[in-house]
Design brief:
globular, 247 residues, Uracil-DNA Glycosylase, subunit E, binds uracil, alpha/beta, 44% helix
């Protein structure tokens, strides 16, 4: 008779996970494949991790980012910019790269675009910003806020993918073309990517305008409003019609 296989305890799983991520892990590494096909959500796979476990994992990622020399940006940054928000968040926002204020404070989206993002979250979704999770594709500031180079995205994005797997959110929201094109592997214009629900990493992905763009073109805010409503509908469905708060 075959004995049922003993499931590893959450502590053992965390130990395994940390040993994979550990400070000596090779950088850069190959990102896990992105898939557009339906599969078990990362949330289902990682469900047993407690908030404390997730904080430890995020800390381990942070230690590795601080040592990363995979592209030249470490030389000009003031500090790395990892994330902001709750490791237990349902909603995970992804921006492009830190700007001057983020580089100065070590927190994503704290400048004028960040203040607008906070208003979108707190007035649109009606939850405190610190109940969402916010991160960027790049963890170091590109000089002069230039667009990230493809090789910078390639070497830095595995850290973002690890953050997503750790947080295991219910929905991803890509802010702007850099984040959208990274996940969807396309150069298509934003107007063709917005307004629908994509699937990546087994999670729904909504694409919306970057808050910096909205600062330059306030008339596009109405479209972001629609995107956020769409995201809330998807979230509500995943939650069994509980918990969406956008109006
Ligand atoms: N723009 C981004 O994409 N990310 C930030 O953190 C700030 C501005």
């Amino acid at each position: 008779m075959t004995r049922p296989r003993k499931e590893p305890s959450p502590q053992e799983r965390l130990k395994n996970w940390l040993s994979i991520l550990g400070p000596d892990a090779l950088i850069p590494h190959t990102p896990p494949p992105l898939t557009a096909s339906p599969m078990a959500s990362t949330r289902d796979v990682l469900q047993p991790f407690s908030k404390k476990n997730k904080e430890q994992i995020l800390q381990a990622i942070s230690e590795r980012v601080k040592k990363c020399r995979a592209c030249g940006l470490y030389a000009s940054r003031k500090q790395v910019v990892l994330s902001d928000g709750s490791p237990d968040a349902d909603i995970f926002f992804i921006g492009e790269a830190p700007g001057a204020q983020e580089d100065h404070q070590g927190i994503p989206f704290v400048g004028p675009a960040g203040q607008l993002l906070t208003r979108i979250i707190e007035q649109g979704i009606k939850i405190p910003r610190n109940e969402t999770f916010i991160a960027n594709i790049l963890k170091c500031r590109p000089p002069g806020n230039r667009r990230p180079l493809p090789e910078e995205i390639q070497s830095c994005s595995p850290f973002l993918l690890e953050q997503i797997r750790c947080v295991s959110p219910k929905i991803l929201i890509a802010l702007g073309a850099t984040a959208a094109r990274f996940f969807l592997k396309t150069q298509a214009p934003m107007r063709s990517l917005r307004g629908r629900v994509h699937q990546v990493l087994g999670l729904p992905l909504i694409v919306t305008w970057h808050p910096s763009y909205l600062l330059r073109r306030p008339e596009a805010k109405v479209e972001t409003w629609r995107d956020i409503q769409l995201a809330m509908k998807v979230l509500e469905k995943r939650n069994g019609n509980k918990g969406a708060r956008a109006e």
